[in-house]
């Protein structure tokens, strides 16, 4: 017994038009064809499949059979994939990337990342996205290795040759600790007091900045590989550390963490930049993504801290 024939894309389009409109005449109007042509295409499709897809004898308007409902669901999925394929190929012909690989700094506020990627999905529905989240030199490493076309990084490698750097704002970093921590209980901490307590420090997983310290104030340090672990230990009262203000905003409001009061130093700005290799400039989609991050800094970015007072200093290397 031979299997069902191979339906054409045109036949599948006719089937969906009839199913969606509920009549042959309405489907013909949608497709810009004569009703007889639509009916002929449906007859051929049913003959090829060996199934009756509609009940056309007992009802005035064609009604899908149970088997017809199942076939329509599959046909709809096939045509959606075909539309996605056509959109992707059109993008390629227009110079649009098939995929954009992006690596972002773990310090980047989640609100900024979500805003950019939601807009990216709407703007480039046919472009796939590959996202990495790293810290310090690991971001630059992924870009220089070609594993990521664009990086959103701190400024630890601003002087590195072969990379283009575009400033896109920053995030405010605060020295914080749990309320039970000795530093939290003292309103008159001196800068030197920090050296006597464990500082939780985000470590670099790449060789680019191996052995280098950024914002380390204490002789006693615990090194952690990710920001979530650092946050959890701070909440547990194990040491103190610098954290992005949006990450600890709710903790500060609810009293789970306390911003340390150290005269002359209440925090610093961790600045971001979009980076890419000068020999491999970003395509239209990746360039649009960079501009989206830059426009966040020019406008009103969710979770962004107002400009600091003069007593607060700006850090180019960041506090980690």
- Rg from Cα: 29 Å
Helix share, percent: 25-40%
Strand tally: 12
The amount of beta strand, in percent, is 15-25%
The residue-averaged pLDDT reads: 81
N-to-C CA distance: 70 Å
Q: Number of helix segments?
A: 10
List the secondary-structure elements in sequence, H or E. HHHEEHEHEHEEHEEHEHEEHE
* Helix-and-strand structural type: alpha/beta
| Global shape | elongated
What profile does the largest beta sheet have?
A: 8 strands, mixed
Uncertain stretches of 5 or more adjacent residues: 300-318
Summary keywords:
alpha/beta, eight-stranded mixed sheet, two-stranded antiparallel ribbon, 39% helix, 20% strand, disordered C terminus
Describe, in plain words, how this protein is organized in 3D.
The chain is an alpha/beta fold and 320 residues long. Helix content is 39%, strand content 20%. The chain is built from 10 helices and 12 strands. It has helices spanning 9-21, 24-31, 35-49, 66-93, 110-123, 137-144, 182-185, 227-235, 245-254, 284-298, and strands spanning 54-55, 63-64, 99-105, 128-134, 150-153, 163-177, 199-202, 221-224, 241-244, 258-259, 268-277, 313-315. It is elongated and about 90 Å long.
